[in-house]
Design a protein that fits this description.
The chain is an alpha+beta fold. Helices cover 45% and strands 14% of the residues.
Length: 391
């Protein structure tokens, strides 16, 4: 159901333009890479990386022109998140969650207008992180269906929220939690409650002790009698719910993030191969046909991932209608290629690839996390298979 929200009557001042040229993105990649290992080891919130992304204006991507921003197209989404993922995928993921919420607001406005304009104003001065907090331990991934156990109840002045969420990416740094909740009516209202991050009653439990993306702050978030204004929740009856609004080709950026990780692994492999000179060989291993063939295989996998991501993005930006089964398969295909590229580099290098002071070990852990992001491979294959069979 599309929500009708009053639009501003006064045109806001234009936000500063965001430079997404290759040189500008390469500079941000380098900044993120400089602190990525530190954040991975400490599993602390990556404030330095988030500040670098903010300073580059990238956290403002997707803000609608009616709020002073500019539309984000699919190609630039792929370019930006591949660059961020190449530097620090934890920062890239936190950034993507915020940018995707701006894109959703652009396509289907649902925030109270003045509150969202405040978000835009604050985004000029500081990082303003936003994420939809949906998953629950009992429910699992919301994309697979079901109502949340997190409840929201009317009060005389607004709403009160209670619940326990899992996998809340960016939790320790969020300016706004968009908490998926439901009322306890016979036909419950469900939707996202807009909860300021400094609201009393929010507690973040540092449960995220993961293989990869260790600095993504994907902890549990617990909400105990959190009060929000009446306009901060606009639920839809469960009987009328038609699914979430899609962000189309911009969503390819979430998969491209891991293409960036694979590029970082490729760069390390090439550098290692040029510098590694075994005594028995007497020359860099890069000069051997075996390593050259491995490098070729890595490039082949990167080419596959890039052609899928950029090819679909260009077609979407050109206005072409892409069959749903093709779009849903893009993410697992990009991920397969990215994972294969990194694993190929690891297998060729051997022990040094799994040594913690070399970044390839971190790249391997990070790229494996791609498989759990929606759409997960089994879901994508099921959707595509049913369409192919006419079911």
């Amino acid at each position: 159901m599309t929500r009708t929200v009053e639009q501003p009557t006064v045109e806001p001042p234009a936000l500063p333009p965001v430079d997404v040229s290759g040189d500008a993105l390469a500079a941000v990649t380098a900044q993120l890479a400089a602190t990525a290992e530190e954040h991975d080891r400490s599993a602390g919130f990556p404030w330095a990386g988030i500040q670098a992304v903010h300073d580059a204006g990238l956290l403002r991507l997707g803000i609608a022109p009616r709020y002073g921003g500019a539309e984000l197209n699919a190609v630039d989404s792929v370019r930006v998140f591949a660059a961020l993922g190449q530097g620090d995928p934890s920062v890239a993921l936190i950034t993507a969650m915020t940018v995707f919420q701006h894109v959703l607001q652009s396509r289907d406005p649902w925030w109270p207008d003045e509150l969202y304009r405040e978000v835009v104003r604050d985004s000029r001065e500081r990082p303003v992180l936003v994420n939809a907090i949906r998953a629950e331990h009992e429910l699992g991934a919301p994309a697979r269906g079901g109502l949340p156990a997190t409840t929201i109840r009317r009060t005389a002045s607004g709403w009160v929220l209670n619940g326990h969420k899992a996998y809340a990416t960016g939790s320790e740094g969020l300016a706004y939690h968009l908490v998926w909740a439901a009322t306890e009516d016979a036909d419950p209202l469900q939707g996202h409650a807009i909860v300021p991050g400094d609201s009393p009653g929010i507690r973040v439990e540092r449960t995220w002790d993961h293989l990869g993306l260790r600095a993504s702050s994907t902890h549990d978030a617990i909400y105990t009698d959190v009060e929000i204004p009446a306009g901060n929740f606009q639920g839809t009856p469960a009987s009328e719910h038609r699914g979430d609004v899609a962000i189309g080709g911009v969503a390819l950026g979430a998969a491209a993030l891991y293409l960036g990780v694979a590029r970082a692994a490729r760069d390390f492999f090439a550098r290692f191969a040029r510098e590694r000179v075994p005594t028995a060989l007497g020359r860099p291993i890069a000069t051997t046909e075996r390593i050259q063939t491995v490098a070729g295989e890595i490039e082949a996998q990167l080419l596959l991932a890039e052609e899928i991501a950029f090819g679909l993005a260009r077609r979407i930006d050109a206005g072409e209608s892409i069959p749903p089964q093709r779009l849903v398969l893009a993410k697992p295909l990009i991920v397969r290629a990215a994972v294969t590229a990194v694993q190929t580099a690891v297998a060729a290098i051997g022990n040094p690839a799994l040594t913690r002071h070399n970044p390839l070990e971190r790249h391997l852990r990070d790229v494996l996390c791609a498989r759990v992001h929606p759409p997960q491979e089994d879901t994508a294959l099921l959707v595509a298979g049913r369409r192919a069979l006419g079911l």
